[in-house]
Design a protein that fits this description.
Layout lengths: L8 E9 L3 H13 L5 E5 L11 E5 H9 L10 E3 L1 E6 L5 E5 L9 E5 H14 L3 E5 L3 E6 L4 E5 L4 E9 L6 H5 L4 E17 L6 E7 L2 E7 L4 E9 H9 L2 H12 L6 E17 L3 E2 L2 E3 L5 E2 L7 H16 L8 H28 L5 H16 L4 H8 L6 H4 L1
Helix pairs in contact: 1-3, 1-7, 7-8
Protein name: 2-octaprenyl-6-methoxyphenyl hydroxylase
Pfam families: FAD_binding_3
Family: Belongs to the UbiH/COQ6 family.
Amino acid sequence: MPMGNPQVQKTVDIAIAGAGLVGALTALMLAQRFPHWRIALIDPAQGLPKQDPRTLALALRSQMALSDLQVWHQITSATPIEHIHISDSTGPGSATLHANKEGVESLGYVVQAADVQQALAQACEAQANIDWLRGESIQQVQAHTEATTVTLTSGAHLTARLLLVTDGSHSPTRSLLGVNMQSKCYGQTAIAGFIETDTAHQNTAYERFTDEGPLALLPFGPRRYALIWCAKADTVQQLMALPEDEFRHRAQALFGSRAGYFTGSERVGSFPLSLAVAERFVGHRFAIMGNACHTLHPVAGQGYNLGVRDALALKQVLELYQDPGDLAALQHYEALRRKDYQHVQTFTDSLVNVFSTAEPCVSFARRCGLKSLRMLPSLATPLAQKAMGFGAQETLWR
């Protein structure tokens, strides 16, 4: 609830700017682990959570985190990914990843973002040590030796031992703290939407690489896929202008028949693709997390999953410190996250650079790589680990 009275001054242990998917998850995770801490969730929105139209590819590690928080059973839209088929449109060459070969029931799940947000919101509201401050945003930040004080929209003041910034890619709180982003434009735009087929998907996700960028189909419903189609900006502009049946035929021609015949499609929107990472992740009694800290190309499906790992790492680190805003704790957190960010950034950049060109030598090399994955299954395990959200941090979480 809003704090209302401009004269109100409130003290908490942790204040979180932004109540979206990462902010609400972090609030719930820390509130459950540290019930003696008071946590304020600062949310500019009024009323119920907005109906986020996106679909999310949840890595297995992220699903495990939601399960540990006792909210997974509420997310009824989840479709498991048991197989991932990777192929190249420029010539023969494909590979597959299978959950059963990795000893798990699924490699991940496809879910409706709104369902995850609603489940997290309900759990946060039921958590006694979370104060959800709706209709509030941070207007000013003032640092003190032992705490940080923020001035809210209502004029009220909130003092916290630690400020967490989770208010999205265009974070106003990050700007108030004077933290800049280092960015790189990929020269690609993504179309988000849905494809319906005449064939059941068998819980298979498809990643089809083209000379302009990847085209992904993620199982979401019995004969339905969530679509992410990445291409050059002018190509996307042409695709978005096509009638629906022509758009579907273009997708079918590029994708082939491996997922069946495309019987329906829906375009939700398009967005430019870039890499952006905060110049620093922590400072005096603050940490930046989620999309406020990192924005990635969707090729590796790491976006929200990286934010979940932010929350997991922070919880793990804070278990070692009595003061959540201790400089040593924040530096410990930054060291853990920097390694993961660098690993994911290198992996994502490599995929974009190698799999988004028609240059003959590169095209031949990547098809050979896909064939090697098919012929030597042991080579697929590291890739499967990344898909499940473990990768570089596997030993940390298991």
